[in-house]
């Protein structure tokens, strides 16, 4: 074993840079294996910098070719250069120029950070610390500078040369087959927003005029042949730009906005100034290759990256601890955009499902951390559901507390005051406080205290006094580094639902700050008394999921079913159904027969058939909590086989009892013949597939044939993939044929084959690991392309709960093996996958022993572990 002693970075150690880089001029001489980068920096020391302070710039695997100060080569003893650092001793006390020439190898860059080649296209990824793999620099978000980039490359193989900002000159390089392009970005920015692209690409274009009349050229670049699949992305971009003008008063600020889709990309996409680079999964779509979920994902990610232009780029982060400042806020903005473009309640449910399935597990395990962490070893490990999704919930709570107008006032002040800054969460909060003349100091605890609070409610009704009393108690379990917790400020949207299903108005409320339908909790335990309540209500708490907490509503089954049928808040109708399913599934896992099951199943049928609800909502209403959700809810000594068996049995029972209902709904829904990805059509497809899910589960004669017929008749990817998934999940006749037919139809289309890989990986199977191993040999799979790995391995870890947590430890052993394999080439991908160990402590003893041994095997392996993987494994074992 070799040791890797990564430094712990602490928020309290933050200091400004001693020198300021005013401008950066970069020249890239692109060659696959030996690209030369000439960087000319204009620098000056800060007023408080003592003379003689060394200039220390970041590097990562760099080779220095030359260094000049004010045009003269530096003497050997005037600097020290290592692959990860450049130190210039005794720089001038006056402004000076430093010219640094480095050589890098894009073809050998398997980490996909810095400058690399994706399918013959040169592209960059610099967030968080990739720029230091290009040249020596202050690679930190508070070092803002004005960038000019000249790109030189072979013209035939790289006809397109793109950089940040606005295009300047282009031309041929005399006497060669090469050409160049110069780009200038007038907006000072940190290095993580730098980007360049060079390759043989084609684009679709559109002209956009901003609200104030400024013309902007929009281009989406893709590999040749894919241009017909970029239309939805362009449509999403234009709608995002309009929405940001209308909703936040934010306009675009350059002459061009370019997007490039590449196939090798670690994450979803990147908001580089004026030149967003995307994982092609979030750009390319047509009905043949993309599902409704893909279309929705594209709309969201295109909007997200575009919105970063203001929340992230114009106002960036002071250091990486402030990541949620740009990410939580931008996720909130993209969620609001989708809510406005689609159905708000359905979008809210989808976002909460995501939060509960990704962030709640993170917050309840060894990887729990605050939305604004205070220390890290590897920043790449902090692009988490907590920073992004819980971060968005915190912004949403600010809006809930202040109201829409107060929220907008705070945002306006934030944009006005901090444009051009590298800011902090404290700056952000202060804008809402000042714009609304309010104090958010207690609320701010949400940024610093990790863990998911539990909110326990109980209530009583006094008929004589006409009062309804609500007792609310909050507790937050200990999380790593935070054994004791303070009570949070929790905004609880609520209603008191009367016997006729309408909310009862109260005359007075005592015991907490209550304003209309919003109750704000500030203490560990609070008793709220509502007066003037004429009949016993059922409390509907946490409407719209007004705070990211785990609610124990204190309602009996009868009351939950009542809310499921009558609550005026659609979110809580859905939540009531989920709570009931979850409770019943846990009882079934324990071998019990749940009380009230039949009444629940009949309420489920009514919800599914309710024509007043939109199709997508009805589809969500029918959704069973996943095996992972149930495991999390059980929380300790989990036996994943028992959960899987209970869930299968419940689906089968619901399917058998409501077969006729599902068949009726299924046959009645007509989807227009020409495919459209709009929300209404997608909702119809999703409800049909959800009905088919239960019918397929029922085992009733004819259901397998119906599922196969759905697959055979499918004229779009949503239906084809949905039906295939059911054939495989329920192991129905036709599954094998379906898999073959899908493969034959889509071989050669990587993004479509990713779906095939993920279906196969998620299928319950006695020997899941062998199946996955075999699939890694399939031509559609590659260890080098993150999308392939996320589909196959991620599909196994994320959806095949029984396979991954198999009691013999084979799933854990396999994850250890592939973590070590992937870590050699791409630590970020390895680290993302190894996070699946985050739930190991919740498992039963038999599984825990195996998981721990696998984690220890990673740590003790005879290879140098990346900081990324090592940090996650150590935190898991802690
Ligand atoms: N800022 C991007 C996320 C992102 C982060 C790191 C990356 O490379 C390792 C790439 C993208 C976003 O929020 O969309
Ligand atoms: Zn983002």
From TrEMBL:
<dbReference type="InterPro" id="IPR035414">
    <property type="entry name" value="Peptidase_M1_pepN_Ig-like"/>
</dbReference>
<dbReference type="InterPro" id="IPR042097">
    <property type="entry name" value="Aminopeptidase_N-like_N_sf"/>
</dbReference>
<dbReference type="InterPro" id="IPR014782">
    <property type="entry name" value="Peptidase_M1_dom"/>
</dbReference>
<dbReference type="Pfam" id="PF17432">
    <property type="entry name" value="DUF3458_C"/>
</dbReference>
<dbReference type="InterPro" id="IPR024601">
    <property type="entry name" value="Peptidase_M1_pepN_C"/>
</dbReference>
<keyword id="KW-0479">Metal-binding</keyword>
<feature type="domain" description="Peptidase M1 membrane alanine aminopeptidase">
    <location>
        <begin position="232"/>
        <end position="443"/>
    </location>
</feature>
<dbReference type="GO" id="GO:0008270">
    <property type="term" value="F:zinc ion binding"/>
</dbReference>
<dbReference type="InterPro" id="IPR037144">
    <property type="entry name" value="Peptidase_M1_pepN_C_sf"/>
</dbReference>
<keyword id="KW-0031">Aminopeptidase</keyword>
<dbReference type="GO" id="GO:0008237">
    <property type="term" value="F:metallopeptidase activity"/>
</dbReference>
<protein>
    <recommendedName>
        <fullName>Aminopeptidase N</fullName>
        <ecNumber>3.4.11.2</ecNumber>
    </recommendedName>
</protein>
<dbReference type="Pfam" id="PF11940">
    <property type="entry name" value="DUF3458"/>
</dbReference>
<dbReference type="Pfam" id="PF17900">
    <property type="entry name" value="Peptidase_M1_N"/>
</dbReference>
<feature type="domain" description="Peptidase M1 alanyl aminopeptidase C-terminal">
    <location>
        <begin position="558"/>
        <end position="877"/>
    </location>
</feature>
<keyword id="KW-0645">Protease</keyword>
<dbReference type="InterPro" id="IPR001930">
    <property type="entry name" value="Peptidase_M1"/>
</dbReference>
<dbReference type="GO" id="GO:0016285">
    <property type="term" value="F:alanyl aminopeptidase activity"/>
</dbReference>
<dbReference type="GO" id="GO:0006508">
    <property type="term" value="P:proteolysis"/>
</dbReference>
<comment type="similarity">
    <text>Belongs to the peptidase M1 family.</text>
</comment>
<dbReference type="InterPro" id="IPR027268">
    <property type="entry name" value="Peptidase_M4/M1_CTD_sf"/>
</dbReference>
<feature type="domain" description="Aminopeptidase N-like N-terminal">
    <location>
        <begin position="57"/>
        <end position="193"/>
    </location>
</feature>
<feature type="domain" description="Peptidase M1 alanyl aminopeptidase Ig-like fold">
    <location>
        <begin position="451"/>
        <end position="552"/>
    </location>
</feature>
<keyword id="KW-0378">Hydrolase</keyword>
<dbReference type="InterPro" id="IPR012779">
    <property type="entry name" value="Peptidase_M1_pepN"/>
</dbReference>
<dbReference type="InterPro" id="IPR038438">
    <property type="entry name" value="PepN_Ig-like_sf"/>
</dbReference>
<keyword id="KW-0482">Metalloprotease</keyword>
<keyword id="KW-0862">Zinc</keyword>
<dbReference type="Pfam" id="PF01433">
    <property type="entry name" value="Peptidase_M1"/>
</dbReference>
<dbReference type="InterPro" id="IPR045357">
    <property type="entry name" value="Aminopeptidase_N-like_N"/>
</dbReference>
